[in-house]
Amino acid sequence: MPKAEKIRILSNILYDAKAPFTLKEMEKLGSKQKVVLQSIKDVLQELVDDSLIHLEKIGISNYYWAFPSEAQALKKRKLESLEEDVTVKKAKLAENKKLLETLSVGRDQNEEYVSIHQNHLANLAKLKEIEKELLVYRNNDPEILKELSDMVDTAKNSVNRWTDNTWNCKSYMKKKLGTDPKECDKFLKINPDTFDYID
Fold this sequence. Notes:
With 199 residues, the chain is mainly α. It has helices spanning 3-17, 23-32, 37-49, 68-104, 111-138, 142-175, 181-188; strands at 21-22, 54-58, 61-65. A hairpin with a 2-residue loop joins strand 2 and strand 3 (61-65).
């Protein structure tokens, strides 16, 4: 049974009886109308959450109750709220249409507009070509070349410093630990024929 049908059946039981019922009584009445017993509590809770029925604790029992006039009043308030919302949205739509008409004045895509637009696109294409050309010149810029040269010097110094550190490690391993030079090379992963400082 669809959920909407369960809601309709259980709320109608309360509206028709105009009397409070416990959960067990509601389960019994709902089951008679083919509502699955296990789903009745959840459906009732949803009706309570939506303020379509009431749940009151009296003593140790919980009672569900509702009056048709309350449901009608609630639906009427909801309808009024939705109608008010529609009115506000219609007013906003009319305002936006008016604004669109105002802003559209003078923006017709006439020959002048098309000409200006094509001119703009042509200028953008020229700008891209000029930027490409500037990039070629930038690669030959003396300042950029000096900057690259300085970076190369820094890299060389760093490589030579690590080469020096590696030789110091090898020397330490040979003198202090008595490691065979070939074992040192193997451990440090260096080729003594090619491993050296960079000029």
